[in-house]
Amino acid sequence: MTQKHLLIVEDDEDIAELMTHNLAREGFKITVAASGEDALKKVRSETYDCVLLDIMLPGIDGMDVCRALKKNAKTQNIPVVMVTAKGEESDIVSGLELGADDYLVKPFSPRVLAARIRTVIRRKAKEKVDENAVVAIHDLIIHPGRREVLLRNKPVDLTNMEFRVLHFLASQPGWVYSRYQIIEGVRGDNYPVTDRAIDVLIVGLRRKLGDAGDYIETVRGVGYRFKE
């Protein structure tokens, strides 16, 4: 199996050294960047399988680094795991909205971190295999490979998380999913997002879809489904 290469973006030398030591023991190849600027420079010159990103960095912060990675066609598919002390729900939602693939709050278990990294790498590999599986339903066309949604042949601008939720529900029309199942389906098990965060995402998604937002139906006491 090819050794996976991780970029740790962390300005605290002690934390970076601890993460490097533990993840190297797990079989990963490690490169460290001490700032957002250094991280962006490194991803332009080398290939990484995952970026571990602190938010509170000198200069360009982690949110801006994530935004830059996800807007660049050459780096948008690199999995990003935010590893940070900022654990408020608003921080987590903001990270997900920018396209982070996972969010881990310090302090954390090194084994849990390694498991999360392997999960997001596997998930990205699976997405790449399935990226051409277009979903066409009602007057919507959802193209995972292009991260594109067309409503009556006009593009709809969605955040990464909104796109994932829409694709997840529309892929199984008529099936009812609890909020927890939606979290699990788009991000993986034990993901630190609350029911309320999913409700907020659904509200935003419906608003952007206009009258087509009615295709996302609320099943009271259970969750949501996409209309058959």
Task: Give a verbal description of the structure.
This protein is 43% helix and 21% strand. The chain starts with a strand and ends with a strand. With 228 residues, it is of the alpha/beta class. The model has no long low-confidence stretch (mean pLDDT 86). The strands form 3 sheets. It has a 5-stranded parallel sheet with strand order 2-1-3-4-5, with helices on both faces. Strands 6-7-8-9 form a 4-stranded antiparallel sheet, covered by helices on one side. It has helices spanning 13-25, 36-45, 62-71, 89-97, 110-129, 160-170, 179-187, 195-209, and strands at 5-9, 29-33, 50-53, 80-84, 102-105, 135-137, 140-143, 148-151, 154-155, 176-178, 216-219, 223-226. Helix 3 links the parallel strand 3 and strand 4 (80-84). It has 2 domains: 5-129, Response regulator (Rossmann fold); 135-226, Winged helix-like DNA-binding domain superfamily/Winged helix DNA-binding domain (Arc Repressor Mutant, subunit A, Orthogonal Bundle), CATH 1.10.10.10.
